[in-house]
Amino acid sequence: MNQVAVDMREIRKSYNGTRALNDISVHIHQGELFGFIGPDGAGKSTLFHILTTLLLPDAGTALVGGFDTVREYGKIRRIVGYMPGRFSLYQDLTVEENLKFFAGIFKTTIAENYHLIKDIYGQIEPFKNRRAGQLSGGMKQKLALSCALVHKPEILFLDEPTTGVDAVSRKEFWEMLQRLKAQGITIIVSTPYMDEAALCDRVALMQKGDFMAINTPEVIVANFGYRLFAVKSALMYPLPAALEAMPDTKAVYRFGDAVHYLNTHEDKSAEDIIRHLQVHGHNEVTVNQVNPTIEDCFMLLMKKEETADANT
Amino acid sequence: MQTPDLIKQNEPNHVIEVNNMVKKFGDFVANDKLSFFVRQGEIFGFLGANGAGKTTAMKILCGLSAPTSGEINVAGFDVYRQTDLIKKNIGYMSQKFSLYEDLTIRENFRFYGGIYGLKNAEIKERIAYLLNRLGLMHAADKVLKEIPLGWKQKLAFSVAIMHRPKIVFLDEPTGGVDPVTRRQFWELIYEAANDGLTVFVTTHYMDEAEYCERVSIMVDGRIEALDTPARLREKYQAASMNEVFLKLARIKKSES
């Protein structure tokens, strides 16, 4: 156990002089469900292209399943499954024909690995004679995942499988991933949705071609380093500006139905915040200390990176 | 937060009035007797699972598609007979911004100002005002493809409200951007709504649903719930809008 599925060292990639990946390294263990979390432009897809041997890095090395992505790309392609961000199936083939095609190029059959895809393919099998182009978004997603799984890959790469997908379908998709993980497949997934980080074993928080943190979601949250307050008032619109005016404010931002507030001073209490707001004419103020989410951590890390950038 | 009254209909401050809106495609009922209103200056969240019928409804409200039946009034105009007037009085922005990558920021504004029939002097004034508000005066002559996604998103919003529409429709406006930029975008929405603009927004980020004054949730072509986020959370005994959404939308999800 604990063998390495991905061993990536100092990978660099630029497009027309713009750095997409900035000498980044990561280890992903076998059987792990690993998430690359970050917005558009963070470099997630470039990273996936390099790891799936579709793109050459400018510098650095990456081993996938023990094979080098540059010299041994053929071996890697046999052991990985890849679901790209954009729907990549043949629109004018039927559901079944698409799956047969992908099984065929890997010299296997649907029957041989049916146990692996049954859970997912079973849901769209009633429509197996429908052309892929005529499926709903959720069904296309399930077909694409079935096609990426049909050759029984050791490592599955899913590039933003849930982008633009509603909250219910996203939840169902993650439940499917958990069941696949239970079968021993290493799952590497990217997503711009911060709340999905909590569903991964470990995550890399990614921004502008760098990893801001790599760890379990629990440890990232535990390393937050500030007391986080959720503040509400009768007047929510001007609340951030009023909080901003407090001395030694570290960060103020809206979060769900509240405003999140951080102060650089450890001993700043909820009472201090309430007093400040009352002086500024706010009524019905409530202040609760809350646990940070990955999204809070991501924003704090972004702030740190910006400060670091400004100092160099 | 102020508690909006949910019962009153046919009020002069309603900029969208929808009564029994139905849209059928053959036998398929995409919108099944939708009834709701949106107040002037309100931020109204329009939620639903993929395939619930949101896009169909939005197209009707924007004057791009005729309903099968129902009474629908947008910005004071009828969706059957006055679609041109509706289009002039609304703005629209989607995640796939329709800005021109090879034009500069200023040129994009001028182009859309021209389409909406604004006079030259007015275009100049609006560009100055909107860029000033975004703090992007210095970047007016930058070509679009050279600027960050977060700027483009704010520009797309500014372009959509350049002709001073009564309502702006935002279709998943914040997809893919980082959490800080996403919040900056929402500050822009708040500011515009505070100035009296009505904002009609769809999103898959459930925390953004909390930022809306009222939220409707569509399931299988119907509006299953419509209220303030606080009241919805209370009614469905949920800690967040995400939970409310999961409870409602999971009841029946038909895939066909």
Describe the protein's architecture and organization:
The complex is a heterodimer of chains A (312) and B (256). Chain A is 34% helix and 28% strand. Chain A has 312 residues and is α/β, with parallel strands linked by helices. Chain A has 2 domains: 4-221, Rossmann fold, CATH 3.40.50.300; 225-291, VP9 protein domain (Alpha-Beta Plaits), CATH 3.30.70.2070. A 6-stranded mixed β-sheet of chain A has the order 6-7-8-3-9-10, with helices on both faces. In chain A, strands 2-1-4-5 form a 4-stranded antiparallel β-sheet, with helices on one face. In chain A, a hairpin with a 2-residue loop joins strand 4 (59-64) and strand 5 (67-68). In chain A, helix 3 packs parallel to helix 5. The relative contact order of chain A is 0.13. In chain B, the strands form 2 sheets. A 6-stranded mixed β-sheet of chain B has the order 6-7-8-3-9-10. Chain B has a 4-stranded antiparallel β-sheet with strand order 2-1-4-5, covered by helices on one side. The radius of gyration of chain B is 18 Å and the shape is globular. At the A-B interface, helix 5, helix 6, strand 12 and helix 10 of A face helix 6, helix 7, helix 8 and helix 9 of B.
